[in-house]
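ugh ok so i messed up the first submission bc i forgot one of the chains. this is the corrected input, ALL of the components this time, i swear. 919 residues overall. if the numbers dont match what u have on ur side tell me asap before i send this to the collaborators (the ones from the other lab, u know who)
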Amino acid sequence: MRAFRSLCCVRAHDSCTPCPKDCTSLRSVAFRLVTFVVILLLGVSLCSAQQKPVALKGGRILTISHGTIENGVVLFENGKITAVGSSGSVQIPKDARMIDVAGMTVYPGLIDSETALGLTEISAVDMTNDLVEPSDEIMPHMHVYDAFHAESELIPVTRLNGVTNAIVAPSNHDTLPGQDSFIQLAGKSQDDFLLVRDIAMPVNFTGAQRRNERGEGRKFPSTRMGLAAQMRQAFLDAQDYAQKWSDYEKKKADYEKPKNESGSATDSAVKPGDKDKDKKQPPNPPKRDLRLEALLPYLQGKKPVVLAAEESSDLQAAVNLAHEFNLKFILNHISHSQSVLDYVASLKVPVIVGPIYEEPKPEERFDAVYSLPAQLYKRGVKIVIASYDSHNARNLPYAAGFATGFGLPADEALKAITLNAAEIWGVADQLGSVDPGKTANVVVSNGDPLDVKTDVKMVFIGGKEIPMASRQTRLRDEYSAK
Amino acid sequence: MLFRLLASARVGISGTLIVVVAFALVALAQDASPPVPSDLLIKNAVIMTASHGNIPNGSIYIKGGKIAAVGAKVNVPSGVAVIDAAGKFLTPGIIDSHSHIALDNDVNEATSPITPHMMMIDAFDYHDKSIYHGLAGGVTTSLLLHGSANMIGGQAIVIKHKYGLNRDAMLFPGAPRSIKFASGENPKRVYGSRNQLPSTRMGNFAVQREAFVQAQDYMREWDAYNAKVKNGDKEASPPKHDLKLEALADVLRGNLLVQIHCYRSDELLTEMAMAKEFGYKLRAFHHALEAYKVADQLAAANIGIATFADWWGYKEEAWDAIPWNAVLCMRKGVRVAVKSDSEDFARRLNQEAGKTMRYGGATEQEALQMITLNAAWIIGVDDKVGSIDIGKDADLVIWDGYPLSSSAVPNKVFIDGSVYFDRSLPGFGMPYYKEGL
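and heres the new structure output, hopefully the right one now
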C-alpha cells in the first residue's frame, strides 16, 4: 500500500497546501500566506477549501463503521476527517467553516468497484474508447493508467451522485486484459486521480473471451478449454521467468561477492591490464518480458486478481486455476451460480456481485440475480456491489438499493459500496467510513443514499468541496434560462 | 427448456428421445386459455391513481376485468373475494411505450431503408421470457416497435403481458396501429457502411421524402381509379396493389400513429417540417434526448416524447442528453413518457420514473404518469388503461414498498382483473404459465 499512503491530503499538499504536521511551523505560515496570495490571484478556491477546517453540523451521519449519529458533527481539516460525533461532543475550531446540514444525511463517498471511467467518452465513437486491447488474450502488461483520461466529462457527472472513488478496469474481452487502477474522482491532474496505479488484475473466465466468431474472426482460443490452457501457460511461463531472474540474481550476487583475501571481484574486474586472465564473466541478465513481469506480483500473492465467472461451472474452473497458482483472489459477477452459493461461501473470499440488472437465464426465476447479494450476505460472504458502467456509474447507489428489495439489509447494501469495497481494495485505513483519520470523502444528501429520489447536495473529496456542476448541469442551465 | 430436454435426451435411447421431444412439444403447445376474471375487492392499499391523486387507505372493486369502483370506501356485493393490501401500494400497470422484446431480434429488415410494410405481428415471439421479466417488474402493456436501422421500419403491435397465454390473447384489443420511423445515426451507419444511400442525414431525409412522394402518386392513382368506378366506368382497371406504398398511404391518411426515433433537436424540427410538408401527424418522438432544446415547438404541435430517465453518452447523438430532459419538457407542456427500449430497463421502469422526481422535481403523480397515463397516450390506449379510473381495464400492480423508489418490488400484477404474476407463488410466480408441463 505504499502507493496509497500518499492519498489526497498529501498529494494536495504537494501542489498547494502544507501538510498537517508542518502547519505549526513559521516556515509553513509564510508558505501559507504565499499560497493564499497565489490562490487569490488565480481566483481558484479548490485548494483554499482545505486550509480552513470544515464542520458539517446537525446532519444524520451514517458512519458505516459505528452506526448512525443523529444530529451529528463531522469535522475535517487538511483533507482528513478529524472528529465525528454528536453535536456538543465535538469541539469545533473557531476558524472552522460551519455548514448547517440539519435534515440532511451525511455518509462516506461511494466506491464503485468496477467502472471504465476515463477509458471511454462516447461509447459508439471508437476514437474515444481505450477499453481493451483485443489483439491478444493475455495482456497483463496493459495498464489502464496509461489511458486514463482524468478530464473525462463522465467524471463530474458521476461524482455529483456521491461516487468519490472507483476501480477503473479494462473491459472483459480478454482473459487477462491488463491491470486495474484505483482512482478518486477529483484532482488537478491525472496524478491526483490515480491513487493506486496497479491495484489488481482481472482474470476473466465468463466465456465472453472466446474468439469464436464465425469466419475469419474465429481463432484460438475459441473454447473455454483454450482459454484455460493459455492462461495456465501464461502463469507457468511467468513462474519460469521468475525462476530465471532469481537464478540470475543469485549468479550476479556470487559474481559480485568478494572472491578471496586479495580483494573483491569488483576490484579485480576493474584492475587495468588484467584482461588476459582467465576469469569468470559477469552473468548476463535474462531478457525482460513485460508481459510475464506483469504477472509476478500476482503469482507472489502481493496483489489480488479479480476472478470473473458467471455460471457455476465456469466459477469452479476459474477457482481451480487460481488455486493451482496460489493466486489471492476476489470473485466477480457469479451471476448465474445460484446452485453453488455454499461453495462460494466456503472459499472465504469477497465477491463483487452483479451487475444486479443482469438478465436471468430463461430457466431462472425473475429474481435469480436480484436476490444474489442477499443470498451471499446470508451465508456470511463479504459482498461488494459495482455499477460495471461508466456513463451510468452515477447509478451505483440504486443498484445497492435494488438489492434491498430482495432481502439485503439497507445498512449492508450501503456497506457494499463503501466500507466493504474499501476493505477488499486494501484502502480501508483511508476510505469507506466516516471516521477520524480517514480521507474526507464525504457526501451530503437530502435522504436515503440508496434511493432514486434522493438529491445529493454536497460532495467533498479530500476535504475539498466539489462544485456541483457537470457538462449536463451546464446544458440544463443554458436551456432553462429564459 | 425444450433445448434442455433435447440435450438430456441425447444420452438416452432413440425411443426415449422421440417420447421426450414429443412430450416437450406438446407441453410448449399448451398455452393457457384466457382466464375468466373473478370479481375482486382490493382493500386497505395506498392507491396511486395516476389521474386524481392518492387514496391513502383505498379500495378498488374489480368486476368483469374492469375497474368498477375506486375510493376510500366502495360498496361491493357480499361474497366477493377480498385481497387485503394493508401496508402496500397500488398503481396502474406500467406501460412501456418503447420496447423491442419478444421479437427474436427480428426488429430490423435492414435491407432497404423504407420498409413500412414489415408487420411486427409476423415476428412476435410470444414465448419470450422477456415478457415475463417485464411483467414481474409491473409492466402490463408494451408497444413493440421495430428497430431504427430503417428510416421507416414497419408497423408495431401493442401487447398485454399475459405470459402463458397464446399469441393472440396477448394482443391489446382495439389498440391503434403505430408505425416506427427513425432518423440520425442508425440509418446512415447501417446503409453508409455498405456504401448505400443513405449515408448522411441529407440522405436519410431524401429517402424518406422520396418515399412519401411515391405514396402520394400511389394514392392519386387509386383515388382516380376509385373515382372512375364511382362514376360507373366499368372499363377502369385498378392500379397494382403495393404493400409498401399502401402502408405509407395509410400514414398520409392519418390511419397510423407515427412514432419517430430521433435524438438531435435539429432533426426533431426537420421531422416536424416533413410531416407538415406531406400532411401527416406525429404522435411521439422516441429517445428525444435533446427535446429540452425545442420543447416549446413540441408542445405547440402536441407531440409527445418517450425518453430515458438518465441514459446518455452511448453515441454522439446522445452526448447532449441530460437527466432533466423529461421534466424540462413536461414543464413546457410536452406529454412525456419514460420508456425502456431495453429488456433490462423494462424490469424497473418504476425506478426510472422515480428519477424524474429528483431531476427537476416532478411530483409523485407526474412521475407515475410518465410510465402509465402518458405512455398510454403515446400508444393511443389512454382511454382503456394508464390510470385507476372507473371503466378502465383492471391492469394493476400491488407493490411491496413505495413504487417510485430503488427498492420497490411488485407483489402481484393484474391484467384485465386476473393475476398474471404473484411473487409469493413458487417457481416463476405465474399462475398461467407452467414450464415443461
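quick check: The longest helix of chain B spans residues 201-230. that seems consistent at least. Chain B touches chain A through 46 residues (CB under 8 Å).
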